[in-house]
Amino acid sequence: xxxxxxxxxxxxxxxxxxxxxxxxxxxxxxxxxxxxxxxxxxxxxxxxxxxxxxxxxxxxxxxxxxxxxxxxxxxxxxxxxxxxxxxxxxxxxxxxxxxxxxxxxxxxxxxxxxxxxxxxxxxxxxxxxxxxxxxxxxxxxxxxxxxxxxxxxxxxxxxxxxxxxxxxxxxxxxxxxxxxxxxxxxxxxxxxxxxxxxxxxxxxxxxxxxxxxxxxxxxxxxxxxxxxxxxxxxxxxxxxxxxxxxxxxxx
Length: 251
What we know:
Layout: H1 3-13, H2 17-30, H3 35-47, H4 51-64, H5 69-81, H6 85-96, H7 103-115, H8 119-132, H9 137-149, H10 154-167, H11 172-184, H12 188-196, H13 209-221, H14 225-250
Helix pairs in contact: 1-2, 1-3, 2-3, 3-4, 4-5, 5-6, 5-7, 6-7, 7-8, 8-9, 9-10, 10-11, 11-12, 11-13, 13-14
């Protein structure tokens, strides 16, 4: 591995995707057929939302050597992001039915299928993941989410998500997902009970500003002013960070 590629890997692992792209390009200038550099360039570009460049790099790598299952899945999801839904579904289903896929990969496939408006296929991929790993909390949470998308009865969706919470009681994201569903059902008191076990203890793990607005409003509506203010404070902090990052990118 040349020095530029080594640096590209370090930048990618640090989440500095634009810099990872830059150093991967340096590596490719030395060897245009370096599969590792092409793959890293593709993945870093996708993470940086540069889908055209990412797809091009991964397709070039695939012509030299078959892509791993995980990379194939990311390529398929990228196809969906640029509107090539049929190709995305075809590649996702090809990997899903290969007989070699693991539960984590099936969950990622499910997310890709849901992104191209195929929630029933997503639910089936999730079900297969559950067969492989029935005790994985994420499987049951995602099943509950996709069940909602497919129009299954609320009782089934709620039961699946509550089972995920039973398997991972401290997961704030599962609890916010269930609370959001309960809010839509006008069951605000139940939503408060679901969140009380993790808010404010795990509030710092919540990075979704829409989620924070939703639960802040819930706490305000239910006269839990202290928790509402903590959520609002977290939201304000994230908004500032987002504005600063945007300003830095423009500069």
